[in-house]
Amino acid sequence: MLSIPEIATRLVDETLTKVSEDNSCTICFVGSSSVGKSTLLNSFLDKNDTPRETLVMEYSFGRKTNQKQGMEKTICHVWEYGGKLDILKNILPSIPVNGKYYYCVMVDLAKIKSLWNTLESCIQAMVNTYAEQKSVLVELIIFGGKYDLFKNYDAEIKKLICTTLRSVALLFNASIVFYSSKERSLVRRAKELLHGIGFGNGVPNKERMFNFSKPLIIPKGTDSWDNIGVTASTLEQVKARHLSRIPLDTELSSVGERTIGAHHAHPEPSLDSKVAMKYEELRNLDSLDISLGDYLIDLH
């Protein structure tokens, strides 16, 4: 026969288990480095800490009282990965999953040449870790970070990137949201999404944007191949289409980088900033019809 303390301990354990499953969720953030993951999470969790470089894995949590269930609190467990992507698959199995599980991949939209590798590595790690775990249902959310830089890119580049992200999202039944810590409306939108998955009923479905010239927000289940404008594709076909335009290993030479220094002598700082922005865009393009030096000379 159990003693009163033993009975109390068992009741507490059972209660905590029930709370863990019914009133909690797990959010895992992975993706590009220095793209704004920590800044967004601090904003979501109402932390005023200055974001610092994330270690291999960091944990935080948020709590909110559930009014419909008396004083019970909903707990949102938040994990952020800041290590190398090639070992992510070794780290994910160690993350305890409580309640609904949201796997958030934030890619740097301003670094289009590394975007595919980041996206593929993170999704492959997810598939390898959870594909055979029937007890873990993973919902993928793709965040496009640094939209404030991406919005100034060439229209065709933006269309290609958006097509790639929408195609991948469609294949994995994922949601997409573009984000920038420098644009208040996008911060609000991203926080609303996180609040929805952390303490609400999932990704909000009220706001949608499919136009590649605008910051995308596409809840899962609302897109289609016809809307994207491409035929139904496999992941390998999406990859081939993307890499045919933006190869992973093409970089402008250091000679080109020195060229900009020679022309970085405008009397007005505003012109310098425009040249720098255009140069960064050009560094991310897969080909140029003219040399970088000639292009920069034309800017004078």
TrEMBL record:
Gene Ontology biological process: cell projection organization
Pfam families, sorted: Roc
GO cellular component annotations of the record: dynein complex; microtubule
UniProt keyword list: Cell projection, Cilium, Cilium biogenesis/degradation, Cytoplasm, Cytoskeleton, Developmental protein, Dynein, Microtubule, Motor protein
Protein name as catalogued: Cytoplasmic dynein 2 light intermediate chain 1
First-listed, main subcellular location of the protein, grouped into a coarse class: cytoplasm
Entry-linked InterPro entries: DYNC2LI1, P-loop_NTPase
